[in-house]
Amino acid sequence: MARKNRGKTRTKTPPSSTLFPPTPPVEPKPAATIDALTDEDLRTILRRLSAADLLRAALACHRWRRVASRCCTRAPPLLGYFFHPTRHTDRTYSDAVFAPLDGSVPRLSLDFAPDASDFQVYDSHQGLLLLEPAVKLPKGVLPRFLVLDPATRRRELLPPPPRDSVPENRPWRSSRYYVGSALLSRAHPSKLFFEAICFAIDGGHPRAWVASVDDGECRWRALPRDDDVVVDFDPWLFEARCVHAAGKIYWHICNSRRLLVLDPSTLKFSYLPVPDVLRTAKYRVGETPEDGRLCFVTDAGRQLQLWVRGEAKWSEKGWLLERKIVDLRVLCDMIPGLPRHPLFRTLSVWPSDMDAGRSGKVFISTMGHGRFSFHLNTGKMERLSTESGMDYGHPIFAYSLAWPPAFLSPEVVTCEALAPLCLK
């Protein structure tokens, strides 16, 4: 008996999985870009960059500039050092040169100012260099000043203060003794708006002149004599070069246990005493590399010592012995060629300056055996010499950019002050 469904085609029921439409292919997610980072993430990355790389990153776009402005350190980045090379055999000085801190820093120079050969560097502050004539002038003559900005290659030649700036100038002209000069402040990082000061001793008291330079125009004003400060010694003992430290300006006095201090905010002079233990020792004022406290390094007690400014029961005239760094005999053993006699060895070596760049180094001078740098924490000694074999002359000026950079300020300005950092 034939089956009823013979001859009929039999259809198969599709599996249940085919009852639904196929899943569309998943498109691959686009790769994450730097724009996906939040400002906090970007800030974390930028904080790991060196100062020079941070400035280059800030030039990328407006957003990066805004974030980079919040990553700037309070201290300006150290780019290198300006100095006058010298040969210890004849003690003659050459034109000022620049030694970059590392390979990422452009090799700045003063070739944009041909007349710089007639001047010597006397101060470095906020991206500017202050130079005075290399030719020694009579003690009562106030000199011209050359101010240079190596980063933007700008220059300004300042005339000496006019005689009529002091109404009673005639009585002091015979006794006036010019001492030195310094850079006070800079009004705008990208322009040559600044103030400088020079001072002399008039009748046993310091008198200062302040130059305000605005868009190429220089205006001098004379301040009254500071009668509260008496100079009862030969003004020749003043060092013409100043030291910027802890917000004030200091001048060393040879064979003296006190410093001359100028407060830039009040333009008033005063004396700052140092401990009596420095009666015959050499000392150099500066800043601590960690927190910028006022300090000085000395070779008192035949040791390299670090003193800081502070009040305590055991302080001496407001100074505290922070630590004894190294014995001078050990320091001398690091320098080749010194005399063998122990006394002559220690007398041939002395601290000539603290590094104003707050690198933790002290510059060491020797009597005819070169210049060196000594790191206070690591104890590393390095010879300071040029590729041509000349020594770094004294003093050595730390050079930093004007800070903060102009393009990181709220005002929208050009970036020409940072252009040298974008070149390698």
Number of helical segments with 4 or more residues: 6
- What would the average pLDDT be, to the nearest integer? 85
Q: Please give the number of β-strands.
A: 23
- The first-to-last residue Cα distance is 101 Å
Structural class: mainly beta
Largest sheet: 4 strands, antiparallel
Strand order of the largest sheet: 3-4-5-6
Strand content: 25-35%
Estimated helix fraction:
under 10%
Q: What is the 3D form?
A: globular
Q: What's the helix-strand series?
A: HHHEEEEEEHEEEEEEEEEEEEHHEEEEE
Notes on the protein architecture:
With 424 residues, the chain is mostly beta strands. The chain has 6 helices and 23 strands. The strands form 6 sheets. It has a 4-stranded antiparallel beta sheet with strand order 3-4-5-6, with no helix packed on it. It has a 4-stranded antiparallel beta sheet with strand order 7-8-9-10, with no helix packed on it. Strands 11-12-13-14 form a 4-stranded antiparallel beta sheet, with no helix packed on it. A hairpin with a 6-residue loop joins strand 19 and strand 20. Helix 2 packs antiparallel against helix 3. The chain is globular.
Keyword list:
424 residues, mainly beta, four-stranded antiparallel beta sheet, 23 strands, globular
